[in-house]
Structures are given as structure tokens and as C-alpha cells.
Amino acid sequence: MVEKNSSIILRPQAQKDLDSIRKISPQAFEDLLEKMDLLSEFPEMGPRMDRAYQGYRQVLCGNYRIVYELISVKRIEVAYIRHLSRQMGLRAV
Predict the structure, then answer these.
(1) In CATH, what number is assigned to the domain containing residue 16?
(2) pTM across the whole model
(3) Of the four, 33, 70, 82, 84, which is 20 to 30 A from 22 by CA?
């Protein structure tokens, strides 16, 4: 069994987002959990973001964007999870 490299910490907004998604779409919720599990093994898999989101990375999962900050090799903090239809004015670097 492969040990995970990083712990995933959900910031309060990310936890609210995930709770809301769970109510709307249990399948999307499960997919997001799987993506975050993969993220814990490959913390740099998401491209870096710029401008107001500098220092953050993002990964896509179905119709959702997971925005996270790589605090250290052992700690990832998910800032929030947004549906792709929500405009953020961001661009991956």
C-alpha cells in the first residue's frame, strides 16, 4: 500500500462547498473526494494560478474546480470548490 504524501485540510469555505455539493449531487461529492485523495498523492498535479489567486493551484473534477494551496509537502489546504459555471476571472499559469 502506498502512503499518502500530504494531508488534505478543508478550510471552512471549502467544507461548506463540499457539504452543499453532497446534498445536490452525491456522485459529484464522491468524485471530489476521489480527486482530493489523488491530490494527496500528487500535490503538484494542479497548475499554478495567477493574479489574485497567486500561490494557489487548481484541479478540475467533473463540473467543479478545486482551488488549493500547497502549504508544504505534507499539507494541502483546499480553499474552496466551485462549479465551473461560476466565473472567477482566473487563468492557470
Answers:
(1) 3.30.2310.20
(2) 0.86
(3) 70
